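Inputs:
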Amino acid sequence: MLHADPVLLRREAEPTQSFYGPAPGSGLRFSLVPMGACIPFARNAEIYAEDEPPEYLYMVAKGAVRSYKLLSDGRRQIEAFYLPGDLFGIEAGDKHRFSAEAISGSTVWVVKRSVVDRVAQRDSAVARELWMLAAQHLARAQDHLLLLARHKAHERIAAFLLEMAKRSGDAEGEVELPMARQDIADYLGLTIETVSRTFTEMVHAATFSLRSTRRVLLRDRAALARLNA
Amino acid sequence: MLHADPVLLRREAEPTQSFYGPAPGSGLRFSLVPMGACIPFARNAEIYAEDEPPEYLYMVAKGAVRSYKLLSDGRRQIEAFYLPGDLFGIEAGDKHRFSAEAISGSTVWVVKRSVVDRVAQRDSAVARELWMLAAQHLARAQDHLLLLARHKAHERIAAFLLEMAKRSGDAEGEVELPMARQDIADYLGLTIETVSRTFTEMVHAATFSLRSTRRVLLRDRAALARLNA
DNA sequence: CGATTCATTGACTAGAATCAAATACCGTGG
DNA sequence: CCACGGTATTTGATTCTAGTCAATGAATCG
């Protein structure tokens, strides 16, 4: 049963930590009042596909999601990764511009778009939050753009690791990467071989170390920051 | 003297042509009721700078504008070009994320952000337009992203020319480029030499011809579209 | 018309892609 | 616990695209 006038989106106070795990520093920090369903997706399961009508607004509760596009020749570009607390899938147009898949087993909160629209129409604060959400996605896309246009492989990897560290609320420089090397490559506009080689070189340079394939320990943040500039 | 409740933004009907020259197919087709000032900017004049507080919303009336960022090592990335009819400069945050300059002598409509905010608060249709605007900028940034991540020089040039043709409402495949080769290079993540060479090669391949340095005549749209895929 | 900026062309280099193979990791079943 | 098959990752050799450095040619503006 829905409230008569539900609060749909609420920007979180910076230091707050909600029970389903927000993404600190992600720039997409909202709480979604659990008025929608919370749905599990298996590893690699499709959440929505490109060109489908956008029926829902999503928020990652647990796991990780990739948003991507396939080019006609098979190349894949990952546009964004979504981590717990991140909102995604809301569109201004009438189709999804990207596909979305769960990277690992994930659970996702889902709210009907029609509900969002209705609330936004009545409540200018919610309308403003929608605008801010789009603006934050835009800011991320612009940063990503810059990375792809003007940065070398080492700089892309450095920026990626710093971003992941920030977004996953890294304790002591330990970052757990939820995605495979191929995903990182497709996000950074590189090949998997270049990602792998660059990792190896940076480990040799003691910039970071690999506690396992997916667990990174940042050792020289100054060096990473320098590459990130 | 302002209206008590001015209509600030009005989406244009598709085939309409407003007197100050909109950008057909640009995805940013709005009319700005002339309640702000119309200001002239000389070639290369700064409209706003990165990190400045965003005080205004702008619309190109005549000319062209580039939005860009300078990296610490002097590299420049142009994030977007704005043509007549395009809205730009509105930010969700408290600083401009890019700088903006007039490419050629231009005139720009300017409305105070505080006015926009006030109107959006009262009028949910205007709030929605602001959201749509951000979403359209996002869509452009995403397309641009894809181009930079996954496309070769020829493909980038092809996409750029098709985009410019579409946005400038090309009559018979004639496109007037308002920007210099260096701007194109900095937009496409290439060097000026690569842009120049690629132009030359595509002219030899009869994909297009140059009526002058800045005037392009598209000859083989199929070839361009193929590269654009 | 001359000065300056902009664009093109050429020779060479660097960085990442490609092609190919070896190694590590992981879940499953014996 | 270990062997096995499949997947993911790393490493190596080579190629190719675009960048860099350098010089020439064209366009534009007082």
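Helices of chain A lie at 113-122, 124-150, 153-167, 181-188, 192-204, 221-228. Flag for discussion at group meeting.
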